[in-house]
Structure formats: C-alpha cells, structure tokens
Amino acid sequence: MADIKEPLIPKIGVVTDIRIDTPDVKTFRVVTPDGKKAFEHMPGQCAMLSIPGVGEAMFSITSSPTNTEFMEFSIKKCGCVTEWLHSMEVGQEITIRGPYGRPFPVDTEFAGHDLLFVAGGIGLAPLRSVINYCRHYRDRYGKIDIVYGS
Predict the structure, then answer these.
(1) Strand-pair partners of 123
(2) Percent of the chain at pLDDT above 90?
(3) Strand residue runs (E) in the chain
(4) Opening angle at CA 132, ends 5 and 77, nearest 5
(5) Residue 5 in domain
(6) Which residues contact 28 (CB under 8 A, 6 or more apart)?
(7) What are the distances in angstroms from CA 53 to CA 14, 93, 104, 127?
(8) CA distance linking residue 59 with residue 139, whole number of Å
(9) Are 111 and 141 in contact, with CB atoms under 8 Å apart?
C-alpha cells in the first residue's frame, strides 16, 4: 500500500466493478494492479481521478476507510471527465492521487455524540464514507439521523 504522505504521486487504478445507482450515477470500485487499495483515507476525504488525454477531476471517496481492500467513487455524469468515466468498462485503468481534504473528526468530536447528517444539492456521495464509517463503529456514537433533500 502506498504511503499516505505521498498524495501528489499518481498511482494506477484498475476498475474492478461498476454499479449503476441511477441513470446518471455510477459507483466505481478501484484497486491497484496488484489488487490493493491505492492509499489510506479518512471519512470526508477526496481523490483526483485522471484519464490520460481526457482530463482529471476531484471526487469524494465514498467507501469507508474501514474497507481495506478497495476504494469506491460514486460519480454523476456531468462533464467530459465524468462522461468518459461512465463509458469505462471493468478492467480499464485510471490514475488516482490523494487523499486530499480535511477529514471529518469522527474519532474526536463526533465520538459519544448523536449525529445528524444533512445532504442536498450534490447528494449523499460526500457523506457516504463518514456514514458507513460511523455504522461500522456504531457503538462509538449516539443516535444517527440522515436528512436528505433534493
């Protein structure tokens, strides 16, 4: 596994699964060519996905950090990079850099408290990682509520 201190160094990612969530949202499961997770991350962080000759864009990492085998990205088709991603097939490669961004304080400020997650606009994708992390460590938190408006 790559060192978390190397977020600017691109790593090769292989798409191992593509799930159609809605007509314009797909979830991509990505591993390195040797079948490992590209890097460690915390809830709320994101990564840069690149397609040589097409471009690159930043996406929320939607898989929980507790998953040690792969990373997932739920991506809405809305531009040239996402259009290309949506045309990908299992087995194709992309490059991935990260993690980027300040993570949610799940182990400090969230611990021992009731949690309210509010999503709208761009959807639940940026919150999926933190919600799944809190579900995995359910005993660390009080009541968990999710409010979603579209």
Answers:
(1) none
(2) 77
(3) 11-22, 25-31, 46-51, 55-60, 71-76, 93-100, 115-120, 144-149
(4) 80
(5) no
(6) 15, 17, 18, 72, 73, 74, 75, 85, 88
(7) 17, 13, 34, 30
(8) 29
(9) yes
Look at residue 4 and tell me if it is in a domain: no
Give the span between the Cα atoms of 110 and 36, in whole angstroms. 29
Same domain, 72 and 144: no
Phi and psi at 139, nearest 5°, equal -70, -10
Q: Are residues 15 and 74 in the same domain?
A: yes
Which amino acid, 115? L
Q: Which amino acid is at 102?
A: R
What is the pTM for the complete model shown? Answer: 0.88
Q: What is the mean pLDDT of each run of 10 residues along the chain (150 residues)?
A: 67 96 94 90 95 93 93 94 96 95 90 93 86 94 92
> Distance between the two ends of the chain, CA-based, in angstroms?
38
Say yes or no: 87 and 27 in one domain. Answer: yes
Enter the tokens of residue 127. 């919150």
Residue 78 lies inside a defined structural domain of this protein:
yes
Lookup: tokens for 148:
């979603």
